[in-house]
Design brief:
Layout lengths: L1 H21 L2 E13 L18 E5 L4 E4 L5 E8 L3 E2 L3 E9 L5 E9 L5 E7 L3 E9 L1
Antiparallel strand pairs: 1-2, 1-9, 2-3, 3-4, 4-6, 5-6, 6-7, 7-8, 8-9
Length: 137
């Protein structure tokens, strides 16, 4: 009976370890952000001046969400993991998301390969784009 209990306890911890190895939480810090908006004629304007911010961003693949810990916490529920894309200058991971207000958007993590692998987080809506400069914690 003792060997059987030992086997089940070992199996439980093995399965628990396997489950945790598939879920990932990625943590980033921001160093600045900027906003791009469409004007009343539907044309894209200019990027706002870069505002310096130091906030935490997490990507939790187990809970399928992004969290941005700004003054008002921003939650982006991941609906679809899009295929990664790569060009000579960028590596892009994109996600179709829904924000706190139920509005769909695209969240992308872009690595700028020709800029010393600088990372940026883009949140793209139909009428505006928010970009955060990020780095891995």
């Amino acid at each position: 009976m003792t060997k059987l209990k030992c086997f089940y306890v070992s199996l439980f911890f093995l399965l628990l370890g396997i489950q945790q190895s598939y879920s990932q939480v990625y943590r980033f810090k921001t160093s600045g952000f900027s906003v791009l908006e469409k004007n009343e004629k539907g044309k894209w304007g200019k990027w706002s001046d870069l505002s310096l911010v130091n906030i935490v961003v997490t990507l939790d693949t187990d809970k399928n969400r992004f969290l941005i810990y700004s003054q008002n916490i921003q939650l982006y529920e991941i609906l679809t993991y899009q295929p990664e894309s790569e060009s000579e200058s960028d590596l892009v991971y994109s996600f179709t998301c829904r924000d706190n207000d139920g509005i769909d958007c695209t969240v992308s993590i872009i690595t700028r390969k020709k800029q010393e692998n600088r990372k940026q987080l883009y949140i793209t809506y139909s009428d505006h784009v928010i970009v955060y400069n990020i780095f891995t914690m």
